Amino acid sequence: MPLAPALSVDVLDRLKAQTRAEHLAMEDALGLMRDDLLLADYRRLLERYFGFYAPVEARLAGLLPSDPLGGLDFETRRKLPLLRADLAALGGPAADTLAVCHALPPLRTPAQAMGCLYVLEGATLGGVVISRHVQRTLGLTPDSGARYFHGNGAHTAEMWRAFRSALAGFSASAANADAVVESANETFRSLRHWYVRGRAA
Ligand code: HEM
C-alpha cells in the first residue's frame, strides 16, 4: 500500500491550491497593478488595509500558538506600524480616525489564527512585485509611502520559509489542516469585501 503523503507538507500545497480562486479574486478587486494607478486610490487602499489589520492583528496576538511559532516572533511580523507610517507619509486623515472592519474572519482558535496569518504572510510575496510597481507608477519608495508593500524587504523569502515550516508543524493534524484552509479563505473574503465596500462608499 502506498504511504499516505505527509500531512504537514500536504497542507502547504492544499492551502495554495484551495485558496487560489480567492487570491485571484483579490488581485482583481484591488486592481493595484494597473499602469494608471492613482495616488488617491492607493491611499484609499492603505486606509482600508489599516482598518482591517488593526483589529485582526490585535486578535492574532492573543491567539497564535506559542509552540509552533517557536522561532517566529509575531511582533516582528506586524504590518500595522508600516501602514501607519505610509498613511502619515502620504498625508490625509490620521490613521486612528479611520473606519475599522467589524466583519472579520472568525478568529477564535489557534488554527483559525494560523490560517489568517498564512494570508497576511503570503501577502508579503505579492508585496515584492507591488512595491516595484508602486515605485514605477507613483514614484513612492519605502520612505515616502510604500513601506507596507516593501514589507519584510530583503528578508521576505527567509521569513516566508520560516513561517511555512511553523505552519507545516502546526497543521500536522488533519483537523488543524482543515481549519487552517477554511480560515485562510475566510480571511481573503473578509478583506476583499471590506475593501470593495470602502471603494463603493
Ligand atoms: C495585486 C495584488 C497581488 C499580487 C500581484 C500578488 C502576487 C503574488 C505573487 C507573485 C505570489 C508568489 C507566488 C509564488 O511565488 O508562488 C503571491 C503569493 C501569495 N499571495 Fe499574493 N498577490 C497580490 C495580492 C495578495 C493579497 C492582497 C493577499 C492577501 C491579503 C495575498 C496573499 C498571498 C498568499 C497567501 C500567497 C502565498 C501562496 C502560497 O504559495 O501558498 N496576495 N502573490
Structural write-up:
- This protein is mostly helical.
- The protein has one domain (9-20, 36-200): Heme Oxygenase, Chain A.
- Helix content is 69%, strand content 0%.
- The chain has nine helices and no strands.
- The protein has helices spanning 7-18, 20-30, 39-63, 74-77, 80-90, 110-138, 147-150, 156-170, 174-200.
- The N and C termini lie far apart (57 Å).
- Bound molecules: protoporphyrin IX containing FE.
- Protoporphyrin IX containing FE (HEM) is lined by residues 15-16, 23, 26-27, 30, 32-33, 118-119, 122-123, 125-126, 129-130, 191.
Throw out a few tags for this protein.
mainly alpha, Heme Oxygenase, Chain A, 9 helices
Order of helices and strands: HHHHHHHHH
Helix content: 55-70%
Indicate the proportion of strand residues.
Answer: under 5%
- What CATH calls the topology is Heme Oxygenase, Chain A
Overall body shape: globular
What is the residue-mean pLDDT, rounded to a whole number?
91
